[in-house]
């Protein structure tokens, strides 16, 4: 444990509570024909002693993570399509009722949320730095700006399109270490009575379920209601609503507004009380989370080594970014998990970052079925187990490690 750098939000002292050592970029899949040099960085997490924000100690240059060929496609999950259709419907019914209202989404990826907004004929703009996924959205008729959202982008959008009623980001704001520039951008672009809404993995769920694989280069901040309330106040906004979401293993959707412009929902106080009771921001809680990470690593490794010793085949399912931390921290390579099945075209035929497990199409999973499938995409368990029902019917078993190690 070391107390070194300053908090990226408030300048307070950071207290490190876990160090995963050198880790690869979680979405940098390796081309086996041109392996090149993989980029490694030190993955360590800390909490601020003042504003309580949990954050990485080192940030990776954004151009290394969010490249033209960024492989993650949001629309690969039908459950997430339903989630974002409902999100867009909520905005259309509540915040975007004026036919001239304007919504900006940063991290719009392949347009999974804005698709519904565009079909409803509302003014919208996606801001997405990765050209490949931005083009996929544009091909659906969605307006996208190929850029990083920050102060200068917001100023350009304001000049061209006017102010926005809603600024939205899903699984993106927590990826951005430079929140000061983003908040200045939101301040420039947001209407006086507009809302800035973002949803990201919830630190409360990560601690409760030991889902430590949520910690990787792209996830820079791990929000709680308390730390987001502090952050909002620090940058001149007010946290007016929170909603716990079941997606991606537990997220919270935070709604920020200009101070005094909206009546805060009682949910904010309710969550703050709950976090206090759970002692979520306290050192002993984070220390026991750290202990649980190593217990889970040891348990999973023992199980996989036993499978190998007994001659059982194990295949991974879902070449998630999360699985980079899991496989590299637990020492899981192709000797323990022979390949990973994944439906993302850009990941197929590659090797997983650092651990170099081959990634293949879901068709390979059935050819023939393995004895065990280690579900790296545990957040999509229902959808994947439904699709792959035949695997269980034929005697296959799923290995899950969230919320604890178990076989079903
Ligand atoms: N919103 C989608 C979802 O929830 O499925 C995509 C989430 S994906 C994990 C994160 C996205 O944020 C990537 O498409 C990435 O290119 C984008 N991103 C990262 N930094 C950004 C920034 N400063 N401005 C806009 N988008 C950014
Ligand atoms: P995520 O947990 O970051 O959303 O990543 C999920 C990964 O799992 C992504 O690479 C796509 C893959 N996947 C499948 O292969 N089949 C599926 O049915 C689903 C939902 C996801
Ligand atoms: Zn701080």
Automatic annotation (TrEMBL):
Superkingdom of origin organism: Bacteria
GO molecular function: methyltransferase activity
InterPro entries from the UniProt entry: Methyltransf_Zn-bd_dom_put, Methyltransf_Zn-bd_dom_put_sf, MeTrfase_14, SAM-dependent_MTases_sf
Keyword Methyltransferase: yes
Residue span(s) of domain C-methyltransferase: 246-403
Residue ranges of every copy of the Methyltransferase putative zinc binding domain listed in the record: 7-66
Record has Methyltransferase as a keyword: yes
Pfam families attached to this UniProt entry: Methyltransf_13, Methyltransf_14, Methyltransf_23
Residue intervals passing through the bilayer: none
Keywords: Methyltransferase, Transferase
GO biological process, one term: methylation
PANTHER family: BLL5978 PROTEIN, TRANS-ACONITATE 2-METHYLTRANSFERASE-RELATED
Protein name: SAM-dependent methyltransferase
Originating species: Streptomyces tsukubensis
């Amino acid at each position: 444990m070391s107390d070194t750098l300053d908090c990226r939000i408030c300048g307070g002292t950071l207290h490190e509570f876990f160090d995963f050592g050198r880790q690869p970029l979680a979405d940098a899949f390796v081309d086996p024909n041109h392996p090149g040099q993989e980029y490694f960085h030190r993955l360590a997490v800390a909490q601020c002693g003042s504003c309580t924000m949990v954050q990485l100690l080192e940030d990776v240059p954004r151009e290394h993570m969010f490249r033209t060929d960024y492989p993650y496609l949001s629309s690969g999950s039908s459950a997430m399509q339903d989630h974002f259709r409902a999100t867009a419907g909520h905005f259309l019914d509540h915040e975007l009722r004026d036919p001239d209202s304007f919504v900006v989404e940063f991290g719009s990826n392949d347009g999974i949320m804005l698709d519904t907004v565009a079909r409803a004929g509302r003014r919208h703009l996606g801001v997405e730095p990765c050209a490949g996924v931005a083009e996929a959205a544009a091909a659906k008729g969605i307006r996208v700006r190929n850029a990083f959202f920050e102060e200068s982008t917001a100023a350009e959008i304001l000049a061209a399109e006017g102010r926005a009623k809603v600024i939205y980001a899903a699984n993106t704001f927590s990826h951005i270490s430079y929140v000061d520039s983003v908040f200045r951008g939101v301040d420039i672009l947001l209407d006086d009575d507009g809302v800035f809404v973002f949803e990201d993995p919830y630190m409360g769920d990560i601690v409760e379920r030991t889902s430590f694989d949520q910690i990787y280069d792209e996830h820079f901040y791990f929000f709680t209601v308390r730390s987001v309330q502090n952050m909002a106040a620090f940058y001149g906004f007010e946290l007016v609503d929170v909603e716990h979401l079941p997606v991606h293993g537990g997220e919270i959707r935070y709604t920020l507004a200009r101070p005094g412009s909206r009546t805060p929902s009682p949910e904010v106080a309710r969550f703050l009380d709950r976090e206090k009771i759970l002692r979520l921001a306290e050192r002993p809680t984070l220390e026991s989370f750290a202990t649980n990470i190593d217990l889970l690593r040891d348990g999973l490794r023992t199980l996989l080594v036993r499978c190998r010793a007994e001659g059982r085949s194990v295949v991974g399912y879902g070449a998630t970014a999360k699985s980079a931390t899991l496989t590299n921290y637990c020492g899981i390579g192709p000797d323990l998990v022979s390949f990973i099945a994944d439906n993302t075209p850009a990941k197929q035929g590659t090797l997983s970052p650092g651990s170099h497990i081959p990634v293949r199409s879901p068709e390979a999973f059935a050819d023939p079925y393995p004895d065990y499938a280690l579900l790296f995409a545990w957040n999509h368990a229902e959808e994947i187990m439904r699709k792959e029902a035949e695997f269980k019917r034929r005697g296959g078993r799923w290995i899950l490690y969230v919320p604890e190690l178990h076989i079903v």
